[in-house]
Design brief:
The protein starts with a helix and ends in a 12-residue tail after the last helix. Strands 1, 2, 3, 4, 5, 6, 7, 8, 9, 10, 11 and 12 form a 12-stranded mixed sheet that branches. With 478 residues, it is of the alpha+beta class. 44% of the residues lie in helices and 17% in strands. It has 18 helices and 12 strands. It has helices at 2-14, 19-30, 32-37, 49-58, 67-70, 83-90, 97-112, 185-190, 201-209, 213-226, 243-250, 279-289, 340-347, 351-362, 374-398, 403-414, 419-441, 453-466, and strands spanning 123-132, 142-146, 152-165, 170-178, 233-236, 258-263, 270-272, 275-277, 293-295, 300-309, 313-321, 329-333. It has 3 domains: 2-249 and 350-414, no CATH class; 266-327, no CATH class; 419-476, no CATH class.
Length: 478
């Protein structure tokens, strides 16, 4: 891993790249200010919307958790903008954040795929991720079920994302924030509440928060297609793989988009060999028939069978059991010509959204917005998606292996030691030379001086008087 990072670092140094050139050049390539100006919001005075949003986009890369953190960090001299200007924009329910995100996505598509070609393995990927919080006063926060890791109920949101895998890169297209189990009445009364205009973007987002995720997933998908994005498949896990969802997807574009999903072994029925049976009955019948096959690449045994699914028509079921697993898993594909191997290779593309969740949480501080205002939560997620797209574009044109490796290099640039740290290290180095010179002479044993209270006092005096308390480490930047 270290070798890969060094290789990327060498590439950056060779091209004289630093954080400014990486992000600013990508923004320039995307015409980001033009995109911001086209979202339909303008200010009568003060800083423009594009200037404020550009600064907000930089927050995740500067490891800043809040607007307040900016003005307590070494980056406070980046702008003369006051924090109230940023707060007003983040909390403004009129800002069309979704339109801004789609504007960036369309520019990404224009830059990397100007002919609009559709890759054979292109896919829309839909999934949700838990966004755990600690503040019960956050607007619309609720108890949500965590089905991964330590299963249970947590305070927070469920963030539903729609992404597009174009054959090479994953791009977050759209998202919605959802509540589940409401807090007790006493805690609900303490939650932040804000009245928004009936037709504002903030009101629309708040209505989405109360909508079921499987219903809103279809809305997200249709909106993406309306904005000019298309793919061959829709990939979802078993939670979304219900009959109504599959049926709704197949009705889009006259059945041009196929579904590949995991499905549960529940009570739904299939017509096979003239008999109606559920998943468990079907597995038993296939095992008795002895039609089991083996896939060497995935090291698994499986059955594949075409059945008739109520109101959907012919679909292919892949019933498989992976190594060291006792339970049979079932996958469904509406494209019945796919072999088991083809289906698994396509379904594995779904993992790209899990990578997005991991990298956005680990590197871009997704889920760390401290504001109680629901509009600020939307603004935070939107800017994170935009940064992810910028980095995905930079990675793509420079052929980096992973976005995580690229971000490590960029983070190192952002967390580069400030002037105070550099000055202290120079001063410390000078003292060290003096100490070693005196020690070598044998006249005074002064090496112990480095551990003495006098030395610590000297360092503290230097920090307070000369550096004006500007010395702080990376861990305190947020």
């Amino acid at each position: 891993m270290r070798q890969n990072l060094d290789e990327i670092k060498n590439v950056l140094q060779k091209h004289s790249y630093n954080i400014n050139s990486i992000i600013c050049e990508v923004m320039k390539k995307f015409n980001f200010k033009t995109i911001c100006s086209k979202i339909g919001v303008s200010k009568d005075y003060g800083y423009s919307v594009s200037e404020i949003i550009t600064l907000m986009v930089m927050f995740p890369l500067m490891l800043l958790q809040s607007v307040h953190a900016l003005y307590k960090s070494e980056y406070k001299n980046l702008t003369t903008m006051k924090k109230d200007a940023i707060y007003r924009l983040k909390n403004n329910p009129k800002i069309p954040w979704r339109r801004l995100l789609y504007g960036v996505c369309k520019k990404f598509k224009e830059l990397i795929n100007p002919k609009g070609e559709i890759a054979s393995n292109s896919a829309f990927v839909i999934d949700d991720t838990i966004d755990s919080r600690v503040g019960a006063k956050i607007e619309n926060v609720s108890y949500v079920h965590d089905h991964t890791g330590k299963a249970g109920t947590k305070l927070g949101f469920k963030n539903l994302f729609l992404g597009l895998f174009d054959g090479i890169s994953f791009m977050p297209l759209d998202f919605s924030i959802h509540s589940e189990k409401a807090l007790p009445r006493k805690k609900r009364k303490q939650q932040f509440k804000k009245e928004c205009a009936a037709k504002s973007n903030g009101t629309t987002r708040r209505k989405e928060c109360k909508t079921k995720k499987n219903i809103n997933a279809i809305i997200l998908l249709k909106r993406a297609i309306k904005n000019g994005f298309i793919a061959k498949y829709v990939l979802v896990d078993s939670w979304f793989g219900g009959k109504e969802f599959i049926k709704a997807v197949r009705e889009i574009k006259n059945g041009a988009i196929h579904v590949i999903c995991g499905i549960r072994k529940d009570k739904r029925n299939y017509l096979y060999d003239g008999c109606i049976m559920n998943a468990k009955q079907l597995i038993m019948k296939l095992r008795q028939a002895g039609t089991q096959k083996r896939c060497r690449k995935w090291n698994t045994r499986y059955f594949e069978v075409i059945v008739n699914y109520d109101e959907i028509g012919s679909v292919k079921l892949y019933i498989c059991r992976f190594p060291y697993q006792k339970e049979w898993r079932i996958f469904l594909a509406t494209e019945t010509s796919l072999s088991f191997l083809q289906m698994m290779e396509q379904y594995s593309v779904r993992w790209s959204i899990e990578v997005f969740f991991k990298e956005a949480k680990q590197h871009l501080r997704m889920g760390k917005c401290q504001s109680r205002d629901f509009d600020a939560q939307i603004a935070s997620l939107t800017t994170i998606c935009i940064v992810y797209i910028f980095l995905a574009y930079y990675r793509r044109i420079n052929a980096y292996e992973t976005l995580g490796n690229l971000f490590s290099v960029i983070k190192d640039e952002l967390c580069e030691k400030n002037l105070a740290q550099r000055l202290w290290e120079l001063f410390d180095e000078l003292l060290q030379i003096v100490i070693e010179a005196i020690a070598e002479s044998g006249i005074v044993d002064i090496k112990s001086f480095r551990q003495s209270p006098e030395y610590q006092y000297l360092q503290g005096l230097f920090e307070k008087s000369f550096l004006s308390n500007q010395l702080f480490g990376v861990n305190n930047a947020a």
